[in-house]
Prior knowledge:
Keywords: Aminotransferase, Transferase. Residues 48-385 form the Aminotransferase class I/classII large domain. The chain is an alpha+beta fold. The protein has four domains: 32-59 and 302-416, Aspartate Aminotransferase, domain 1 (Alpha-Beta Complex); 76-297, Type I PLP-dependent aspartate aminotransferase-like (Major domain) (Aspartate Aminotransferase, domain 2); 434-606 and 782-797, Gcn5-related N-acetyltransferase (GNAT) (Aminopeptidase, 3-Layer(aba) Sandwich), CATH 3.40.630.30; 609-778, Gcn5-related N-acetyltransferase (GNAT) (Aminopeptidase). 39% of the residues lie in helices and 22% in strands. It is built from 28 helices and 27 strands. The strands form four sheets. Strands 15, 16, 17, 18, 19, 20, 21, 22, 23, 24, 25, 26 and 27 form a 13-stranded mixed sheet that branches. Strands 4-10-9-8-7-5-6 form a seven-stranded mixed sheet, with helices on both faces. Helix 12 (301-321) packs parallel to helix 14. The relative contact order is 0.10.
Amino acid sequence: xxxxxxxxxxDTVNEVFTDAMQEGVLHLYAEGTEFSGRTIEVKNKKLFxxxxxxxxxxxxxxRLKDAAISAIKKFGTQFPLSKSxxxxxxxRQLEERVTEMYNCPVIITKNSTLGHxxxxxxxxxxxxxIILDHQVHWSxxxxxxxxxxxxxxxxxxxxxxINMLEDKIKSLSNTRKRIWYMxxxxxxxxxxxxxxxxxxxxxxxxxxxxxxxxxxHGMSWVGKNGTGYVLSELKELSENILLFGTLSKTFGxxxxxxxxxNKKMYKEIKTFGGPLTFSAQLEPASVAAATxxxxxxLTDEICELQKELRERIGYFNDLLEQTDLPLVDKNxxxxxxxxxxxxxxxxxFVNRLMKEGFYVNLGIFPAVPVKNTxxxxxxxxxxxKAEIKGLAEAMEYHFPKALEDTHTxxxxxxxxxxxxxxxxxxxxxxxxxxxxxxxxxxxxxxxxWDKLMGKDGVFDWEGLKFLEQTFCxxxxxxxxxxxxxxxxxxxxxxxILATFLTLAYWKDDMLASAGLSKTIEGxxxxxxxxxxxxxxxxxxxxxxxxxxxxxxxxxxxxxxxNALIQTLEQLEQHHKSKMTVLRDFxxxxxxxxxxxxxxxxxxxxxxxCDIDLDGFKDIEGFIANLSSRNRRHVRREILAxxxxxxxxxxxxxxxxxxxxxxxxxxxxxQNNLGLNMFAFPKKLFDNMSAHPNWEFITVSxxxxxxxxxxxxxxYNNNDHTYVPAFxxxxxxxxxxxxxxxxxxxxxxxxxxxxxxKKIALGMTASFEKRKLGASVEEKYAYIQxxxxxxxxxxxxxxxx
Length: 800
């Protein structure tokens, strides 16, 4: 069978970023001939700057500027030698000053990203293991992945989940020498802190635990000598801790610093640390500026600078306290995050603030889950109280307007971030709409449903009744689904929108690569529900096709879609599902723009294949219409083999036949990790055999007709669509009899016998289906998750 094309993560990120760029809130260019730090010029407008990471404003300090200028004049723009050979004359003084700050040995690196790439593979040995906080910075995750080449196990916990971390430590303690937990000191998006004291206690309880902190956002503005948040909590650095700080951001210069009190480990890393050895060293200007900053850090002046910033942070916190703005994490860091929920609300809010004269950052996927889009605000010493107050007032005024513009409300935003709120706003549904939701197809008029949704696949009225009867009262939870049927009408009771939903357990790697699924299936041998989630899905795992009816010409179509999205959110909240999936969409600009703005990311599904039988009287005429190359393919690999086979269409199966059918289906299921799903229950095959709309096209050797070597499980849709829903094969006979191709041909032949208008061949193996006249169409799903944990965990587990 043909290889399934999988969604490329970078394609998804590119789509999200492109959308934000088109809205004018990302990939902007600063303008003007100078920069003060207090304001920034964008699009010919001077804005108060609330997006800096230079929290103390040291990058504008005259002492740092003068040092950098002097260094360029004396030593040039760069010192083009590896530090392994010889360091710039200014380096020794910088290392001495930073060592004095920390009272520990330090290593200066070009930047934190290269630093992590140099340090982590050196510090972590083959006998060790790594556990990542799922919100630890990308640069740490990327460096940790290098260790997979040495078979070092890498795992991940949900953000700041100490109980989960302890469970992981216990599971690794008997097989691994050291267990490294890697986290940020302060997280860059929400500005929340790592639980340093809890982690210290855990390391005392489990001596194998070593801690690796990236504290670049905690640097300078807190701690003795500005050595950061982590050290301000720990007071001293024990030998089981590696700490990264930065010489850029708040420090005001460039570069990064590793602090290591373990002398043996320090020597190993400093002697040979990959990029630390082979990358260019810091430019003389950066070294000199960093030295000037370090000298400030070593005086009492740093305490005054920190105090000034704390006052501004406290002032902004007090102002926010008087509003209903959804501050995601209230603390004392200079990073604030105001949730907007949907991306389009975030775009609107950022643009409104820019028009008012304030520059803020947009927090967007993949840094945060798409539905956790928001505005990231940073407070620095550059900001004066007047503009801080002005920003708070502008946000309080424009936030509800941004919500109104994008048809949402405060309650939905708070719900997206799991924040407590006094807001009790009701859904803002258009009163001209009537939404009806039922939990069984039996409560929906058959003629109405089939007119709207019954033209495609196994989800006409009869097909859904069959699915309800099959996926209930089963022993395994993945075989029990909840169904919801939604129809939205206008005031004249004309349908605008219709769909059906299922709540079911999915494998999180369903659309991942086969290599990743193989890795995950290894874990499922001992934990069958590892990386599985309750999913709210349009359609179901059993059905393929157009699961959404919408009257695109109706003036209230977008109001109907808004009502659907709000209903999905309510169902997700009530049933505690981890993911919402809208399935099987064509490359439609309208839906793409709408769903992405609502907080969904688009992923590529396997291509879908259909055959239109209109205009053909019989199979011979259909084959004659194929290309000459494909006609030769049919003659040589199908028609020439057909006389050797026993072909039979069974309306019902005896127990022996059903057992064979189920075994053949499981062969294909186990072989198809590219579309990794739970196997269906035996009850399904029993119900198919008893249902008048289902039949089995079987293939056997003519000499042994009792032994089935291939089967196509087909549904007769009431609108004259033939649906070969699933296939089963004995792979031992696949090459000898071209079983898959024979089954496709016999399916087309059977559809002609039944006077069908169309064959819905479904997804996967589009290359083979195209040979037999199928038209192939790209299909997409839109996915929204409660957080990025599973996505990032699968990213570190990926092996191919």
